[in-house]
Design goal:
Arc Repressor Mutant, subunit A; mainly alpha; Rna Polymerase Sigma Factor, Chain: A; 9 helices
Length: about 220
């Protein structure tokens, strides 16, 4: 890449590399069109895929914009699946570092967010394998609290506990749909499943959740 790689920090904003921040967006667009520059256009006028292509050609500003768009969604992806918030932040950083390293090989064959969550899913699976290995061979056990216990609402706690009781694949499908808001096609692409399998798994997971949550709702009504 021609420009310096942007700094990654979940709680800070990466500054654009351009020295002329005060230039109008119209002038910047005209200059980019005339010179073939790969700097990122305004957020509202450019897609994730265009930003990633621009970054693959050397635009650090484009990566900064992608990072701002996805740092919290990716952190949420890991936080809902891990007990330790520090680990969730660490894996979020790792996801964007992998994205940095793979930028030169990027091809827009799918939506960018599907590509990004695929990276996150591989990192999560590797992390889980390491966790199991440590537990088996070194006797290490997690001492961090269950993330469900951090939920501020009783209903949220019940939902989290119900989700944890689902089959692993059903749980992943319903979380990608309900929390990450991915389409059926994106989930199928990400998990390498037929589209109809995604639909049936999601239907089964939602039915299971209703069945798991209904007794809790009835008990709550009786208490009232």
């Amino acid at each position: 890449m021609q420009e310096a790689s942007p700094a990654l920090a979940l709680n800070s904003i990466a500054l654009p590399s351009s020295k002329d921040e005060s230039a109008s967006s119209g002038a910047a667009s005209e200059h980019a069109a005339a010179s073939g520059c790969t700097s990122a256009p305004a957020k509202s006028s450019v897609s994730d895929e265009q930003l990633m292509l621009a970054f693959s050609k050397g635009s650090a500003e484009s990566f900064d914009e992608l990072f701002q768009r996805y740092k919290q969604p990716v952190y949420g992806f890991f936080r809902r699946r891990l007990a330790d918030p520090a680990q969730a932040e660490e894996l979020t950083q790792e996801t964007f570092f992998v994205l940095l390293r793979a930028s030169s090989r990027y091809e827009p064959r799918a939506l960018f967010r599907t590509y990004l969550y695929a990276i996150g899913l591989r990192i999560l699976r590797a992390h889980r394998r390491k966790t199991v290995f440590r537990a088996m061979f070194f006797g290490q056990r997690s001492s961090v609290p269950d993330p469900a216990k951090n939920d501020a609402t009783e209903s949220g706690l019940l939902v989290r506990r119900a989700v944890e009781k689902l089959d692993a694949l059903d749980r992943e499908v319903v979380m990608l749909r309900e929390f990450e808001q991915l389409s059926y096609a994106e989930i199928a692409d990400l998990l390498h499943l037929p589209l109809n399998t995604v639909r049936s798994r999601l239907f089964r997971a939602r039915t299971a959740l209703r069945n798991l949550l209904e007794p809790s709702k009835q008990a709550k009504r009786k208490d009232q």
